[in-house]
Structure formats: C-alpha cells, structure tokens
Design goal:
Helices cover 21% and strands 25% of the residues. The chain has a three-stranded antiparallel β-sheet, with helices on one face. Strands 4-5 form a two-stranded antiparallel ribbon. It starts with a helix and ends in a 14-residue tail after the last strand. The radius of gyration is 17 Å and the shape is globular. By secondary structure, it is an alpha+beta fold. InterPro entries: Endo/exonu/phosph_ase_sf. This is Endonuclease/exonuclease/phosphatase domain-containing protein.
C-alpha cells in the first residue's frame, strides 16, 4: 500500500486527467477487510474515485479497478462482461470522454 501511496503522491500533483486501471489483487468490495478499507481511504484522501462496483472475478469479488479524479467526468463504466472464458477475470467496459488533441502539421526542409 505504501508503494501505491507514493505513486499517487507523484501523479496527483500533475495537471490534466488521471486514469488508473488494473488488477489490484485484493477484494475491494470487502470493506470489512482492513486492506480494502485502507485502500478506499487512500483513494478518498487523494480525492480519487473507483468506478467499478460489480464483481470482476469468477470467485465473485471486485479485483479489477478503474480510478480517476473525483472531480472529473472522463469515463462511464458501462458493463462488466463475463462471457469471455479465457481468464478468471471479467472484462470491464467503459466509455472514455477525452478530447482528442489536434496535431500540428510540421514541414521539415532538408
């Protein structure tokens, strides 16, 4: 948990959108477990929001998370799909609301 806290400290001060995803390998839905309660408290202390509220693992727990700044509306988790059987984890589907940056064409003269 200390490593994740240090990671958050280094990224939270940066401007712009923040999106963290992954398999966190503990049951975040089991709020009676100290590790889950500490993790959710850590997210709250950094003003972050965890967006996945349904089970993402065959054993019936939420392990796969999508996290962003609480104040941002950059995504909407649309579903957790258990129809793929290549893993014991389910697929988390989300719509991302990012504006694609425009690119500037540059001319290089040789």
């Amino acid at each position: 948990m200390n490593e994740f806290s240090s990671l958050l400290e280094s990224y939270i001060i940066k401007t712009g959108s923040l999106l963290i995803t992954g398999d966190f390998n503990f049951y975040v839905d089991d709020t009676s477990a100290a590790v889950a309660a500490n993790f959710l408290g850590l997210l709250e202390s950094f003003d972050l929001r965890q967006h996945v509220y349904s089970y993402t693992h065959r054993a019936g727990h939420t392990l796969d998370l999508v996290i962003s700044r609480s104040a941002e509306s950059i995504l909407n988790v649309t579903s957790v799909d258990d129809s793929f059987i290549i893993s014991d984890h389910y697929t988390v589907c989300a719509d991302l609301h990012f504006v694609k940056p425009s690119w500037e064409r540059k001319r290089i003269r040789a």
